[in-house]
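Pipeline run #58 for the internal structure catalog. This entry was flagged by the ingest filter as a single-chain record with no existing model, so it goes straight to prediction. Upstream metadata was stripped on purpose; only the residue string is passed forward. Reviewer on rotation: M.T. Logging verbosity set to normal.
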Amino acid sequence: MGRKSLKVENTNRILDAFERCIEAYGLRGATLEVVAKQADMDRRMVLHYVGKREALVAALVERIVARFEKNALDFLRDQQSEDLQSVLLEYLFSSEFNTHPSTRLVAALLPEALHDDKIRPAVKSIYDAFHQSVAGFLREIAPQADESRLEHTAFQIMSLSFGGGWMTNIGFQPVLTEANKALAKTLIRSLKDT
């Protein structure tokens, strides 16, 4: 098998550096100069392989969505369980999910999305992919459910998962995340009963 192209190799190196910079300095602190230094290359090379900041953010968002779909969704699909609901909720409300590098990156991008019109649609696309993934699992769990109600329930579960996870990450007791998971179970039970 041949070697990866230099473009793919350097793009991955730059995106890896960008992720580390966002976690260390936040999005604002992850300037092209800082990313280039972290990637151990010249700023011009970052521009050559990835482009300006907007292109760097777009490539990172695409990477986060792909990583989530590959890792999280494949993990859930591979579980040999008749009880998809339990598998889904155990994962979404686990410390593994809440401390996953992609989840942490989304958390770092979120404050910037509130104030930056260019970042906002990128972050929303991450949440859209996650929302649609949860909705897809709910369609399997409750195939008879009304589509609108299903979409609302997916959003509620997504909000409980992310919100509770971030609160745990800043010091709230994990038992509160368990309460969110119990609420998510109630939402699914209600969806199944329709």
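catalog note: The CA atoms of residues 93 and 161 lie 6 Å apart.
catalog note: The longest helix spans residues 53-78.
status: ready for reviewer M.T.
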